[in-house]
Structure formats: C-alpha cells, structure tokens
Amino acid sequence: MSVYGFAHLRNRRPHPDILEYLERIQATLEPFGGRFVIHGSPVEVLEGNWPGSMVLIEFPGLTEARGWYHSPAYQEILPLRAEHIDGDLLLIEGVGPDYDPRERAGKLRAGTPQS
Length: 115
Fold this sequence. Notes:
This protein is α+β, with helices and mostly antiparallel strands. 38% of the residues lie in helices and 24% in strands. The chain has helices at 16-29, 62-70, 72-82, 101-110, and strands spanning 3-10, 35-39, 53-59, 86-93. It has a four-stranded antiparallel β-sheet. The protein is globular, with a radius of gyration of 17 Å. The model has no long low-confidence stretch (mean pLDDT 94).
C-alpha cells in the first residue's frame, strides 16, 4: 500500500542551499521508488487557514519511505532545507482502492479499535 511523505512548509526564505536541495532531492528518491505528487503548488483554502505550502511524495510502502528519509543521501541534503524552511514532515499510509469510509464508521460505532 502506498505511503506518503507529507510536508507542511512555512516561512520559506530564499537561499542558495534551497536550490541545491531541489537539484539533489530527486536522486535520493529514485532508489526508494519515491515520486513527487504535489510540490509547492498554489493552494485554494476552502476552510480554515493554511500558512505555507505543501509537498506530497508517494512511496511504494512504509519500508521504502523510512529507508529514503534515513538514507545517507537524504540525510546529507536535509540540512540544506531544514536550516532555511520551517516545517513538519509526516509519513502517512494511504488507503487502498477498495476503501469505503462507511466501514470505518461502522467500526467506530461498534467501538472496534482502529489501526
């Protein structure tokens, strides 16, 4: 099942390190099957407020996502971004093509623990 690396980035500050990070990140993703789904595209806020931008990277699974993040190649370039952009990064497991939210509602009504 796909896993997503979701980043909410705030207070972006232009810096040459950011350009280097952008030039190098793709090579860190490729060995783990990672691909950009969303990368700083403009957002249309329909509810609440959203300061910053979003990045969404898809991986084949949790093993690959964790492997990418902890890889020496990514850890080497991580400070290029982290020192100039505030943000949060999460790994989130997706749902399969047969997902039905009604089943989740039924489990919640029955008090069944959620995974």
